[in-house]
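sorry for the late reply, my laptop died twice this morning and i had to redo everyting from scratch. anyway the thing you sent over, i finally got around to it. pasting the sequence first so we're on the same page, its 274 residues, then the predicted structure underneath. double check i copied it right bc i was rushing
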Amino acid sequence: MKTIIVPTDFSNAADNALNAAKMIARKTKASIHLANFYSIPAADYSYPDISMPAEILEQIRKAAIEGIGKLSDELKAEGFSVESTIEMGMVSDEIVDLGNKINADLIVMGTTGASGIVNKIIGSNAAHVMRRTTLPIMLVPQGCVCDDFNNVVYLDQLKEDDTAVLSKLFAFGDEMGIRNIKLLNVNTGFFFQPINEHLMMQLDRAFGLEKIKLETVDGADVKEGIDHYLENHSVDLVVMSTHKKTFLERIFESSNTKEMALYSKVPLLVYHKE
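ok and here's the structure:
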């Protein structure tokens, strides 16, 4: 890993994401690329013919430069390699373009907590970024303290085309020194099917059985199964994959009766599945 993008609006949530990025950068020797994208406040989009006064835009730009400069100085003082970008534009579009431009390896974004993360993932900046980029994205809840990723769980409908994503995950694990990566199968009788013998043979050939640690948990639905697992196991990072009508979206659409534990406690690393 060479470059980690950390978008920031200087909020507590963004600062927490930066702390997670710092932990990753220390272990992988990656550089941190700070990014701030400012735009006209949402209320003004209702009146496209009315432009924001130039002096207000300049104030916003100067505040962004000052904030990014302060963060950069702090990171450099801690020994990190730091670059930065400040642009006017839509956050989700600019993050994707920046990732492509600098050939980044990971985007680390903060979320605002339990009640907000569904909106953050489905239908907001992170959702738009996930749908448009092929880069891995890590979403860090505001209340999460990321000291290390000792226990990692990969959650998806395991199929033969998962080997590419698992290869990226295991490579990340090797860089980070992670020794405990589990593949979680939530048995609802609907979304998930038992992992077949042919797939196990394929995973064995690709990675070796010593890396394939399977666990199954029962649940009335996927959200309940995940909650149950996270409440009863020590998990530092949940990993999923996304493409088109994603498994991730189906989980969030399945129920609104209970907040999933991972929303407010555990970072979520999302890989793009080709």
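The longest strand covers residues 31-38.
thats about all i looked at so far, will dig more tmrw
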